C-alpha cells in the first residue's frame, strides 16, 4: 500500500509542477527542459524505489515498467478499442470556421492554441479561414485551411 500512495503522491506533484510550468509539446523541448526532465526522473526513481536502492530492485522496477509498456503496445495492436481508450483519437475542434467549444473545453484548449497552430503551420490568422482543426493523438493540432 505504501508504494501505491507514494506513486499517487509523485504523480500529483509532477502533474502540478508541469501544470505550473505550462504546456509544451515534445517537438519544442529545449536543452534546459531535457535536463530538467532528467533531474525530475532521478528524483522520481528515488520515490519509486523507496528504501531499497539495490541494483536488483532498480532492475526490477525498470523491467516491470518496460514489460507494462510492451504489454500495452501488444494489446493496442490487437484491439482498436483498447488503443482508443489508452491513446485517444483525433478530435475535430474547428469545422468550417466554427469553433466546437465543447470539444475545446474537454481537450483543455482555447482558440488561441488553435490560432497559434494555424499561424505556424499555414500562415492563417483568423478562425474563419480554417476548414478543419484537428487535435491529434500526440497533442499537436493539424490545420486544414479553407479553399
Number of strands: 4
What is the tally of helical segments?
6
The number of domains is 2
Spatial strand order of the main sheet: 2-1-3-4
Q: Helix-strand pattern, N to C?
A: HHHHEEHHEE
Distance between the termini: 58 Å
Beta fraction: 5-15%
Shape: elongated
Helix percent band: 55-70%
Low-pLDDT stretches: 22-26
Largest sheet: 4 strands, antiparallel
Mean pLDDT: 78
Give your account of this protein's structure.
The chain is an alpha+beta fold. The chain has two domains: 1-85, no CATH class; 89-145, CRO Repressor (2-Layer Sandwich). Helix content is 61%, strand content 12%. It is built from six helices and four strands, in the order ααααββααββ. The chain has helices at residues 2-21, 31-49, 55-78, 80-87, 101-107, 111-122, and strands spanning 91-95, 98-99, 130-135, 141-145. It has a four-stranded antiparallel beta sheet with strand order 2-1-3-4. Helix 3 packs across helix 4. The longest helix has 24 residues, at 55-78. The radius of gyration is 20 Å and the shape is elongated. It starts with a helix and ends with a strand. Mean pLDDT is 78; it is low at 22-26.
